Each structure stands twice: as structure tokens, then as C-alpha cells.
Amino acid sequence: MLDTVVSVETPEGMLLELRPAGPSARFHAFLFDWLVRLMIFIAASILLSLFGGLGQAFLFIFLFALEWLYPVVFELMPGGATPGKRLMGLRVVMDDGLPVTPPASIVRNLLRVADFLPLMFGFAIVSMLLRADGKRLGDIAAGTMVVHDRPARSDSPVTGAAPIVPAVRLSLAQQAAVVALAARASRLTPQRLDELAALAAVVSGDRGQAGPDVTARVLGVAQWLIGRRK
Q1: What are the residues facing 27 on neighbouring strands?
Q2: I need a labelling partner for 107 at 20 to 30 A (CA). Which of 17, 145, 199, 219 fits?
Q3: What is the pLDDT of residues 76-109, one digit of tens each?
Q4: Structural domain tally of the chain?
Q5: pTM score of the predicted model
Q6: Are 59 and 142 in the same domain?
Q7: DSSP assignment, residue 134?
Q8: Is residue 27 domain-shared with residue 139, that is, in the same domain?
């Protein structure tokens, strides 16, 4: 895995870390997908050969569909990855980390023709080696990235804040909201975290105030709420 991280801030103020895949991982994924397509084509050619000339005509149509629709169909599924990419722990996402859209998937796969030039994906390899985000030409045009798909981690309140007793009595819903904020703290930008903490500042007695100190006290209340009181 490349030691390269691309940070993306979502409209909600959450900071996502995407790890672009390098040429090696993508080559192995491509090789596996090519073998899968080859086996499918061989099976289809054996079956359609039973229908003579009509079968040969359908075989060419099937080959076209297999070559161009195979990656698009799999990329638009929930996993966002072909069998080869799934095997290598990769997936295709938009530049903002969201699932790839149909137009973007179609564009990035149509431009495989340009990436293949001048020989054996020469342009694609050069582009991936020169760019920190590992994009080939199709990815640049479509606004997509191939990233390492890390398993989801469970969120837990940050442990750096000192526990603080709530300044006001909190309902169960309010307690859940404060704890949820603390659970997201590590994935928010500092500015967004301070903004959200200011909305909950009443729990620490800091109503109408904002800033890192207020944020630390709000997170301290979250620590107290989950039982970390020492």
C-alpha cells in the first residue's frame, strides 16, 4: 500500500482520508479481471458455437458488451469494485470520497483506449507514477480515484479530554447527541468541530462561547457521560 494519503473535506465538515492505489495493486486487479473475462468469453464461445453463424454474430456482440460493460456494472454496485479490485482490496470512488456515479464510471472506462496508448497502458502508467493520487487519464477526466478500501472502524469518544460533570441536567437524547459528537471528533476538521461544540456548549456551562477550550470541555462532558470519570 502506498504511503500516500489524500484528505477530502465533505460538505458536512467531515475529514476523510483516502489512500490511492498504486500501479502494482491496480495491475494485479486488472490481470485477475482479464482472466475472469477470458473464462467468461471461452464459455460463451463454446455455447454459441452450437448455433452456427448466428451464434458467431452474437458472440461478437457479447464480446463488445463484456469488454465495455463488465467494469461499469461492477463499479456501480454497492462495493464499487470489479472482482479483481475486490480481491486486491480496492474500490472506485469520486474525488470527494462518495460512490462513483454512472456517468463517471462510463467516462473512466471509455478512456481506457487513451490510457492504453502508446503501448500496454503506457500513458496510464506514467500518469499514475507522476501523480500523488495515482490517477490515470480516465480517472482525471471522470473525477474518480481508485483507493484502498479499508474496513469500517467503530467510532468511540476521544480519550484525550479530561472528564467533566455536565453543567446542566441532560435528557437521554441530549446525552446521545454529545456522545455522538465526541465519536465523530477525530473525523471532523478542527473548525467544524469547534462550530458543533459551540452549539452544545451549554452542557459544559459555556453557553454562547466557542473555541478549542470550549470544545475540550464539551468532549470532557462526553467522557463523563460514558463512564470515564477518572
Answers
A1: none
A2: 17
A3: 998 899 999 999 999 999 998 889 999 999 999 9
A4: 2
A5: 0.68
A6: yes
A7: -
A8: yes
> Is residue 156 included in any domain, yes or no?
no
User: Where does the pLDDT of residue 3 fall: very low under 50, low under 70, confident under 90, or very high at 90 and above?
Assistant: very low
CA 8 distance to own-chain centroid: 10
Residue 102: all three cell numbers together: 454512472
Compute the C-alpha angle 89/95/96, nearest 5°.
100
Residue whose cell numbers read 446525552: 175
Model confidence pLDDT, tens digit, residues 17-76: 788 998 999 999 999 999 999 999 999 999 999 998 899 999 999 999 999 999 999 999
Cell numbers placing 161: 479530554
User: Which residue spans within the chain are E strands per DSSP?
Assistant: 6-9, 15-18, 90-94, 144-148
CA separation for the pair 30, 116 (Å, rounded): 13
Provide the pLDDT confidence category of residue 10 given band limits of 50, 70 and 90: low
- Whether the bond between 212 and the residue before it is cis, its omega within 30 degrees of 0, is no
Output the CA–CA distances (angstroms, integers) from residue 101 to 74, 89, 229, in the order listed: 12, 20, 46
User: Are 133 and 54 within one domain?
Assistant: yes
Cell numbers found for residue 18? 483516502
Amino acid letter, residue 120: M
Domain holding 101, by residue range, is 6-148
